[in-house]
C-alpha cells in the first residue's frame, strides 16, 4: 500500500495487472498513454525505435514498466519485441498502435517515393505486423483490446498532408474491419482520431515554425480553441481499454475539440 501511494498508482486501477504494449511510447501521445495505463495498474511495455527514449519513459513512469526497442515497420523486429514482452510480462491484453510519422506539410507532388513508402510503412504496415504478432496471443488468452491511433486527418483532411491523410484513412477503416472480424474472438478494436497535437510532429503537420502567430491560424479551425495533448489521448485510450467500454468496438473516437463537426 505504501508503495502504491508513493508511485501514484490507484489500488484496484481500471487496468490492474493487464499487460499493455504501447508503440511509439518514447514520446508524444504514446508516452501519455503509457503513463496513464501504468497509473491504472497495467504492466506496460514502452516500445519505440529510439532505445534511449523508451528507457527514459519506462523509468519515469515506473510501476514495473519495461522498455522494448523495435521498428514497427519491420517484421523480424516486431516479432522479436512481442516475444520479448510475452516472456517478461505475459501475453498482451492491450495493444496500442500509436507509432506514426508524417511527411512535412507540402504540395502532394513534391513528396518523393521513398517518403511516401515510409509513411505507409510506419503508419499502416505496422498495424498489420503488430496484428500478426499479437492477435494469436490474444486469441489464446481468450480476448483483448486493440487501440489504433488514427487521426482526424483521415476524416477531415487538410491540404499539404495528402499522403499522410490517406495513411490515416487506412488506419481508421482497417480499425473498423478488424473490429468486425475479431469480435468472435472477444477482441475489441477501436480507433482514436486526435486533432493536431503538442508533440514532436507538430511542426511537420503545420509545415511552418511553431510560433504563436502560426499556431493561432490552426487554432481558429478547432472550435474548443486548443491543440490536443498526450493526456487527452491517454484518457481516451484508458476508457477504450477499460472494462467500462466492453461493448465498444469499431469506434472512431475523435479527440479533436470539435474539428470534425
Ligand atoms: N501530433 C499530432 O498532431 C497528431 C494528430 C493526429 C494523430 N497523430 C498520430 O499520433 C501518433 C503519435 O504521434 P505523436 O504526435 O505523439 O508523434 P511523436 O513523434 O511525438 O511520437 C511518435 C513516436 O513514435 C516513434 N516511432 C517512429 N517511428 C517508429 C518506428 N518505425 N518504430 C517504432 N517507433 C517509432 C518515435 O520514436 C516517437 O517516439 C501517430 O500515429 C500520429 O500519426 C498525431
From TrEMBL:
Its EC number is 1.1.1.100. InterPro entries: NAD(P)-bd_dom_sf, Sc_DH/Rdtase_CS, SDR_fam. Keywords: Oxidoreductase. GO terms for molecular function: 3-oxoacyl-[acyl-carrier-protein] reductase (NADPH) activity. Pfam families: adh_short_C2. SUPFAM superfamilies: NAD(P)-binding Rossmann-fold domains. Belongs to the short-chain dehydrogenases/reductases (SDR) family. NCBIfam families: PRK07231.1. This is 3-oxoacyl-[acyl-carrier protein] reductase. It comes from Rhizobium aquaticum.
Amino acid at each position: 500500500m505504501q508503495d502504491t501511494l508513493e508511485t501514484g498508482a490507484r489500488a484496484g486501477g481500471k487496468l490492474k495487472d493487464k499487460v499493455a504494449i504501447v508503440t511509439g511510447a518514447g514520446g508524444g501521445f504514446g508516452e501519455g498513454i503509457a503513463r496513464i495505463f501504468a497509473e491504472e495498474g497495467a504492466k506496460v511495455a514502452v516500445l519505440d525505435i529510439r532505445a534511449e527514449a523508451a528507457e527514459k519513459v519506462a523509468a519515469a513512469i515506473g510501476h514495473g514498466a519495461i522498455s522494448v526497442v523495435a521498428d514497427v515497420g519491420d517484421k523480424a523486429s516486431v516479432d522479436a519485441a512481442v516475444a520479448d514482452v510475452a516472456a517478461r510480462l505475459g501475453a498482451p491484453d492491450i495493444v496500442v498502435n500509436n507509432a506514426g510519422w508524417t511527411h512535412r506539410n507540402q504540395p502532394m507532388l513534391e513528396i518523393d517515393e521513398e517518403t511516401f513508402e515510409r509513411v505507409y510503412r510506419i503508419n499502416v504496415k505496422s498495424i498489420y505486423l503488430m496484428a500478426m504478432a499479437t492477435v494469436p496471443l490474444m486469441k489464446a488468452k481468450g480476448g483483448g483490446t486493440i487501440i489504433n491511433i488514427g487521426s482526424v486527418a483521415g476524416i477531415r483532411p487538410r491540404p499539404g498532408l495528402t499522403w499522410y491523410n490517406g495513411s490515416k484513412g487506412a488506419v481508421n477503416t482497417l480499425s473498423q474491419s478488424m473490429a468486425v472480424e475479431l469480435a468472435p474472438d472477444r477482441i475489441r478494436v477501436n480507433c482514436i482520431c486526435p486533432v493536431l497535437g503538442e508533440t514532436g510532429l507538430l511542426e511537420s503537420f503545420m509545415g511552418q515554425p511553431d510560433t504563436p502567430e502560426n499556431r493561432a491560424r490552426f487554432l481558429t479551425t478547432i472550435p474548443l480553441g486548443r491543440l490536443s495533448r498526450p493526456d487527452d489521448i491517454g484518457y481516451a485510450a484508458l476508457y477504450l481499454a477499460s472494462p467500462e467500454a466492453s461493448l465498444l468496438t469499431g469506434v472512431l473516437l475523435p479527440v479533436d475539440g470539435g474539428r470534425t463537426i
